[in-house]
Structure formats: C-alpha cells, structure tokens
Amino acid sequence: MRIIISPAKKMKQDTDVFTSCQMPQFINESGILLDTLNKLNYEEAKSLWKCNDAIATLNAQRIKNMDLTRNLTPALMSYEGLQYQYMAPGVLQTEELEYLQQHLRILSGFYGMLRPFDGVVPYRLEMQAKLAGPGFSSIYGFWGRKLADQLFAESDCILNLASKEYSKCISPYLGGDVRMVTCVFGQQIGGKVIERATLAKMARGEMVRFMAEQQIGCIEDIKGFSGFDLEFADELSNESTYVFIQKRADS
C-alpha cells in the first residue's frame, strides 16, 4: 500500500534536527524545471506563482541561488501546511517514521514524488502551474504518467489523501489491477456530504498519523479512524471512495 498526499506552499529549512536520507528519485527532472524557472523574468515568475510581491521576491531569490544538493531538509519536516501540523512528524517514534518512509509519498510539482526522508530545498511550483519548456506546456504535461508509473510499480493499492490538483497526476492512469481509494472527510448537511477544506486538511494529516501509529497494512483497517469526531459511513462509501462523516458539526 502507498499513501499519497499533497505538499504545502509554506516550507521551512531545518538541517539540524534530522539529516536527509537520500536524494529525490526525480532530481534530474527537478533540475530541468529549475533551469526553466531561471529563464523567467520577475513578472513572468510572479504571474506563474500567483502571489504578492513579497512572496514573489522571496521565491525569485530562492530560484536564483538554488542548489538541489546542499542544505537539504527531509521533505516530511520541510512542509508546514495544516495537514503537516496535524500529522505532527516531529513527535512520531522511530518505527512510525519508518512506516511513513515505506508507505507515504508526497506529490510535488517541482520534485514529482517524494519519500518522507528525501532531501529538499524550499520552492514554489504548484502542480497546476502553466510553466512551459521544451516539449511541455504545463507541469501536468511535464510529468505525464511518470509519477503514476513509479507509484504503481511500488504498489497496486493506493490510498489517496491528496487534493484533486495533485491526485490528477495519478488518477487518469489507473487501470489493470491497481486500486485507488479516495477518502472524503465531511459533514452531512441537508442530505448531502459537504467537505470543507480546513477539516479535510486536518483530517488527512491526522489519518496519516493514525496509520503510522497503528502500523496499518490493510486499507480496510482505516475504517476505524475517528479523529475530529469523524466516523466511517459504510452506506455512503464504495470500493473506490471511503466517506467519513463528522458526528457533530463544530459551530
């Protein structure tokens, strides 16, 4: 089984607490993307990133000085989004971190697909970015089916905890004996399942931590997840979608 999650826009650099175990599998491709980004002028880069001047200036400086082989932070410790806060990798035990190293994969516009202890540097490049270069007109086009092929070579059972933006680089290539289960975390309102972004991000992180703590090896066992008063809804779920409904709505 492999678990796929999205990255986070906000990243930190911390080379003291953990040392990176290995280089990312697609580091050569990241080098191509870095070269392409370096050819953009400031306004083109800002437009690509869809951000304000402060963030654009920071990332333009990062791109200019970026060295993909030095001052690396393990990917799992580098991302700072809500999902990662609730995953809380900094407090996990050794066997739980080993579980994540084996089972967890982080999808990335810049790095393609990362194992938790692959070394990374801060970057900004979303999977849906319209970056164009030799032979490609978007990040989706750049990666094609490469990430899906690597993932399916590792396992024929995928737990999708990624956003649609990122799972789109995997789902079009499903076929054969590969099974992908997508988790939905929501509230039942007016007979409909409503999934709110904040709850979904927190629950995805909590789910990853739950799986690591329980050392879950069978995808059906995640039905016991109960974080944030969520409960598996068998009547709303099927073979490819597991729905978790919050028993009470936070006001």
UniProtKB/TrEMBL annotation:
GO terms for biological process: response to hydroperoxide. One of its GO terms (cellular component) is cytosol. Pfam families: H2O2_YaaD. InterPro entries: YaaA (IPR005583). HAMAP family: UPF0246 (MF_00652). Belongs to the UPF0246 family. This is UPF0246 protein PBOR_04095. It comes from Paenibacillus borealis.
